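Help: read this over?
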Amino acid sequence: MKKKKLVIFFLALVAVYLIYNFTYKEEFTYLAIGDDLAKGHTPFDTYGQSYTDFVYDYLKEHNNEVKINKEFIEEDLRIKDLLTKIKNAESQGGKTFTRAIKEAELITISIGSEELFSKLRSNYELYKLNSQKLFDFIDEMTKEIDELINEMKKIKKTEIYLIGYYNPLFEDDASESKLDSIFNYLDIKLKEIEKNHKIHYISIHDKFKKKSNYLPNPNHAFPSLEGYNYIAEEIIEELD
């Protein structure tokens, strides 16, 4: 009798397994978070393809059921805005943001560039750069990013790719070394966040500095299609 019950139980398990495998479709969700950089702001004040679109195209080649969530890509989105959404889950879209994180297998974040660009411009003068104010700002900015990543990891320990920053100013020789030291300092702070939270940090400052075709318009801070494609390639290399 016991043997018969065991056989029935085993057959039931096999049936459940087969039904599950025939009806279940694995869905891979890519959550793209960010400001104008994630949205694809071009050097000529229009919108086109961003690095998020190139990454999505790559993912589609490797997973038929992949989908992208762009609900949290907004112009001038600030780090503080996302922290508010997480901390006030019952209001300001927090519940939706938390759910989006839970559903995601992959998250990319590019945020704070507008704040950084604005701070750079306001502290930049010919042959003079107020470095200390910018270092203080970076300390505050990276502290907020650290807090944001920490809160996101509490919701779900998913794969997070944090996109770095580049210098949008066409500097002269006198200020170039100062600007380099500021972006190198920012790199160090973001690499600390990468290590502490076990995320992926995509540093782009050096390559953007060397490739003038990535920032073809001196009067506009956003990348060309080649620049966006480069960011995507760096993410994809990490994915592989």
In short: The CA atoms of residues 25 and 121 lie 49 Å apart. The longest strand covers residues 67-73. DSSP finds ten helices and seven strands in the chain. Confidence is low (pLDDT under 50) at residues 5-9, 14-25.
